[in-house]
Predict the structure.
Amino acid sequence: MTDPLLRVPFAAPLLGEEEVTAVTEVLRSGWIGTGAVARDTERLLTRYLNVEHALLLNSGTAALHLALLTLGVGPGHEVIVPTVTFTASAATVVHAGATPVLVDVEPHRLTVDVEQVRRHITARTRAVMAVHFAGRMADVRALRALCDEHGLALIEDSAHALPAERDGATPGRLADAAAFSFFVTKPLTSAEGGLLVCHRADLAAEARVLSAHGIDRDAFARHHGGRAPHYDVVAAGMKYNMPDVTAAILRCQLERSDALRERRRAIAERYAKGLAPTRLLLPPADTTDDASSWYLYVVQVPRGVDRDHLADRLRARGIGTSVHFRPLHQFSYYRDQLPSAAAAFPVADGSYPRLLSLPIFPAMSDEDVQAVIDALSDELRQAVGRS
Ligand SMILES: Cc1ncc(COP(=O)(O)O)c(C=O)c1O
């Protein structure tokens, strides 16, 4: 993720001596697999997110897959997914044997359009996946009401949103299940990792079994406390568990999560001020009842400006950027496989050519932020002059 040739890379994790010490301790402990550190980190996350059950996994994708499986999504079912998201949101629906139904998003905040969800509910719909795009939450209260009205499960793809808040709800509180990611660039990272949260003990227990080969007792339990090493296989499970060596990194990140979030928010404020004079459409600002994790800072370039050329120009000036997301219905796989991909997506298609994600990560200095503002403002002046 970090490009040494760039003055400001697109993203870089903030790791310190705490993480080095924590990993070293696990390496020296004699147990590097899933064990006491993962369990302790789960306890901390349960408290932090104010949820009943938390299961650490080796990716956010694994968490989405297990959310779908434990909520009974399978062949013959449809799951409504916004088209502006990462492929894992829809691919996991396919892995569960069901069909993703892609729908358009709200302008500007680019989270799923609740009216579009309502229009796409059929007798086959089993669940709705709310994606908290860039760290700004979808309208979970409206989606919860809609799902309750139609007897549907609500799943939050919260890969971008740890933490975030909307209308008094935080990720995982209103959904039947929520999935988080700890990939390298995410607000909290363990290099790779994921978390499934839910409120029902039976689903949490089923997910735990499925995450470790469908074996009824995990390896740590089998080898500790003098218990017999025998086990039963009760399902055709996956291999999704998070090892302690990884959980140790996450536990350190969790301890400094407030500081990490504060720094992201401060960078977002600097961007908002510094880029206000430009013709960029800036992301929605935080309000008292709508707070982003500021995982991404996604601007929309003025109409007529070539986004990719602008990104190239910024790269030439030492600044990394990215694009989130090319809508799923534009990718060949979804176009070929999903009937819903043939629909019209005016908001997603209209915004995609304008989307540009700027660097926003806690290790950025104020000078880095200013360098991005200066370079972008300058390139925009030239681009607007050309257009
Ligand atoms: C919206 C969204 N959902 C799911 C995922 C999958 O998370 P992971 O990479 O941890 O599997 C990502 C990853 O970037 C994501 O952006």
